[in-house]
Design brief:
heterodimer; A: alpha/beta; Rossmann fold; 32% helix; B: mainly alpha; 2 strands
């Protein structure tokens, strides 16, 4: 049984049909690239997996459970994390707060049932996560809005990896990065694979896709038009699938 | 260049329980308060006295509590223009509950808070579920709640409260007016909730980046409704204090108070567009407004000019914030 099984996912926004029945299976520890032209439906499909959009048809099974229609919080709880293209960070909050956003550990106020955010623990664990990732962030108490693009990306990645996910979705994680930072992200994906964590990588950069992925799935006009193992395809073929020339 | 970045200032604390304290108070507002106090001490021989300071605190209590409510909704990039009207409606209904219905005095307290919470619930539902902008929803409530208060009372104040309620407004244990105790208690609780709990943190995150808040599993709509209920309930508390102090439920109470309350919040460093908010800042902001009004009274400046002063301070506070942000390149 696969880790993630999408079956006939459909979605429209008003009169616009974005997804016309998408089937997709992903195994544990598998790195799958999702490619396609702008407007092919990649981001919408991912936002359906993470619960931000509700599908109009079809089912999503994750780890043996039907998660269609679950809330974003419940889906994160089950072990799906997504690194959004715009990073989805609260810019006025500091690094530590962003890493624990939505999952702040709490402690009792003076033994009463009143719960307050356990700030010391958040800082400690955020610090540890940043160090483990080898990210260069000035301080976990630094407001995220004052960090560079690459540093903000590190925060978004740290947030996705702090709670032992089983599947990490990355939407264009390398699009805005410098060459050295791109290498860092690719190494990270390889490391996730070693830890048996599945990855869906949305990317326009086919060199990245061929460097780290096991499979490449092309989406066109809201349908899966190809699903191939990296070893059995080529960049030219994938480009042909994306533009509909094959 | 001196920027007023509250979060870095807060980060520099010692390695203790205090470290987590996030005193995001704008230094300017403290400075303004200090300058006002010094100037008025020189200008008026009556200003610098314990009894006058207690007067200021008493006069600030109602505005300050409304300001805390404003702080919570503004944190989440909302606004509550109905604060003054909800104050009046809850005071009127609280008064009627013991006066016309002859119920025991604690009912007045419960009624005030419940009416406030209910108005907040309506504001929140219309904003979060029906998607009507907060500005419009609460502007509508400003009219409806004010009108309802007048309808229930025929426009006449409802006089005569039971002794315990009057004590709440006029009692002076240890020489300190009761509303001041309530004010301080509400300030402590509100500060704790905003700065230390998930509830307060999420309010600010929603104001900062609503999409991110949703993606991270925060239930934005529910949270927003709760925030309007907080501001409504605090308007109810303010209504109770007003009712207790004047010993009457007055349907014209709190006219334009939302203006002063929002000014206090913005003056205290709460970002008008959400994301950053501070109850302690609002406390300082409310004291600035209180000292200003007190000073103008002592200097025998007509109340007509006081209205102008409040309006001008609001615009000035927002302008200062804009200038600072442009310099700080947030």
């Amino acid at each position: 049984m696969s880790l993630l099984e999408l079956d006939g996912i459909k979605k429209h926004f008003g009169p616009v049909q974005v997804l016309l029945g998408v089937d997709l299976k992903i195994d544990a520890g598998e790195v799958v690239a999702l490619v396609g032209d702008n407007g092919a439906g990649k981001s919408t499909l991912m936002k359906i997996i993470t619960g931000i959009h509700k599908p109009d048809g079809g089912t999503i099974r994750f780890d043996g459970t039907d998660i269609s229609g679950h809330s974003p919080g419940e889906i994160r709880e089950r072990g799906i994390e997504m690194i959004y293209q715009d990073l989805a960070l609260a810019r006025m909050q500091d690094v530590a707060s962003n890493i624990f956003l939505g999952r702040e550990p709490t402690r009792r106020l003076l033994g009463t049932p009143i719960r307050m955010i356990d700030r010391a623990r958040i800082e400690q664990e955020a610090e540890a996560m940043i160090r483990k990732l080898g990210a260069r962030v000035p301080s976990v108490r630094h407001p995220v809005g004052k960090l560079s693009g690459g540093q903000q990306q590190s925060v978004a990645i740290a947030r996705a990896l702090t709670f032992n996910p089983k599947l990490v979705i990355m939407d264009e994680p390398t699009a805005a990065l410098a060459v050295r930072e791109v290498e860092h992200v690719l190494d990270l994906i390889r490391e996730l694979k070693r830890q048996e964590i599945a990855v869906i990588l949305i990317s326009h950069r086919l060199t990245d896709v061929f460097a780290v992925c096991d499979r490449v799935v092309a989406l066109r006009h809201g349908r899966v038009v190809s699903d191939e193992h990296i070893a059995q395809t080529s960049m030219n073929t994938v480009v042909a699938h994306i533009v509909g020339a094959a | 260049m001196a920027t007023n970045d509250s979060s870095t200032a807060a980060a520099a604390g010692p390695q203790s329980g205090l470290r987590a304290m996030r005193f995001s108070v704008r230094l300017e507002s403290l400075l303004v308060l200090a300058v006002l106090v010094v100037a008025l001490s020189i200008l008026s021989p009556y200003f610098l006295s314990v009894s006058n300071f207690l007067n200021i605190l008493l006069a600030t209590a109602v505005i300050g509590i409304l300001g805390f409510g404003a702080t919570f909704v503004i944190a989440a990039a909302g606004i509550d223009l109905s604060l003054g009207s909800v104050l009046a409606l809850s005071g009127v209904l609280g008064a009627l509950s013991v006066n016309a219905l002859d119920l025991p005095w604690p009912v007045a307290i419960v009624t005030c808070l419940a009416v406030g919470a209910f108005c907040g619930l309506i504001n929140g539902l219309l904003n979060a579920k029906a998607g009507i902008p907060a500005f419009i929803v609460t502007l509508g409530m400003l009219g409806v709640a004010r009108g309802l208060g007048l309808v229930f009372t025929n426009g006449q104040p409802v006089y005569g409260m039971p002794d315990p309620i009057v004590f709440l407004g006029q009692g002076r244990p240890f020489g300190v007016p009761m509303p001041v105790f309530v004010f301080i208690a509400v300030a402590i609780v509100a500060h704790f909730v905003l700065a230390y709990t998930r509830f307060g943190k999420y309010a600010q995150v929603i104001g900062d980046n609503e999409t991110a808040a949703r993606a991270m599993g925060i239930r934005v709509d529910r949270h927003r409704i709760a925030l309007y209920m907080v501001s409504g309930t605090l308007a109810g508390v303010a209504g109770l204090l007003f009712l207790a102090r004047v010993n009457a439920g007055d349907p014209t109470a709190g006219l334009n108070y939302e203006l002063t309350a929002i000014t206090a919040a913005i003056l205290g460093g709460t970002n008008l567009f959400g994301g950053r908010a501070s109850v302690l800042g609002t406390l300082i902001g409310a004291l600035v407004m209180g000292v200003l009004q007190n000073g103008l009274n002592l200097l025998a400046v007509s109340s007509f000019y006081q209205q102008m002063a409040i309006g001008a301070v609001l615009v000035l506070a927002v302008w200062l914030d804009q200038v600072n942000r442009a310099r700080g390149q947030r």
